[in-house]
Amino acid sequence: MPAESIIPKPLPRPTPLTQPFWDAAKQHRLVLPRRKDGTYFWYPRTLGPGTLEEGWDWAPASGRGVVHSFTVDRRGTAPAFAAGAPYVIAIVELAEGPHFTTNIVGCTPEDVRIGMPVEAMFEDVTEEIALVKFRPV
């Protein structure tokens, strides 16, 4: 495909609620929402899940987990992603408990396995956005 016809990938649009996550990712740190009782959760939302409790905070996370589930996209979920195919779309069960949808990088799609230990890595895509992806440990 000629370079001029490559469609750029869409990027996340931080909101006031999610900005701390993106700020930390830009610094190559993973943070997660954590309820007052110490329970981590994902995705960020106004009220802590299961409690209707306000006042959760952002807390550092280890960046470690295991592949819970995955699929290999061999064509691209949309035209903007076709040039990067094949790639792995995965749900990683983080050490802190939440499940996190991401990509597995640093290995071939054929090497990915359920239960495979992984760690967070950060892909700087713009001055403002770093994407959180995971690689084998």
Describe the structure.
The protein is mainly beta and 137 residues long. It has one domain. The protein has one helix at residues 19-26, and strands at residues 31-34, 57-60, 64-73, 87-94, 99-104, 117-124, 130-136. A five-stranded antiparallel β-sheet has the order 5-4-3-6-7. Strand 6 and strand 7 form a beta hairpin. The chain starts with 18 loop residues before the first helix and ends with a strand. 16% of the residues are buried.
SSE layout and pairings?
Layout: H1 19-26, E1 31-34, E2 57-60, E3 64-73, E4 87-94, E5 99-104, E6 117-124, E7 130-136
Number of strands: 7
What is the number of helical segments per DSSP (H or I, 4+ residues)? 1
Radius of gyration: 16 Å
Alpha-carbon distance between the two ends: 34 Å
Name the overall outline: globular
Give the mean pLDDT.
Answer: 93
Helix content: under 10%
The side-by-side strand order for the widest beta sheet comes to 5-4-3-6-7
What is the count of structural domains?
Answer: 1
Structural class: mainly beta
Strand content: 25-35%
Largest sheet: 5 strands, antiparallel
What are the secondary-structure elements, in order, as H or E?
HEEEEEEE
Low-confidence segments, ≥5 residues, pLDDT <50? Answer: none
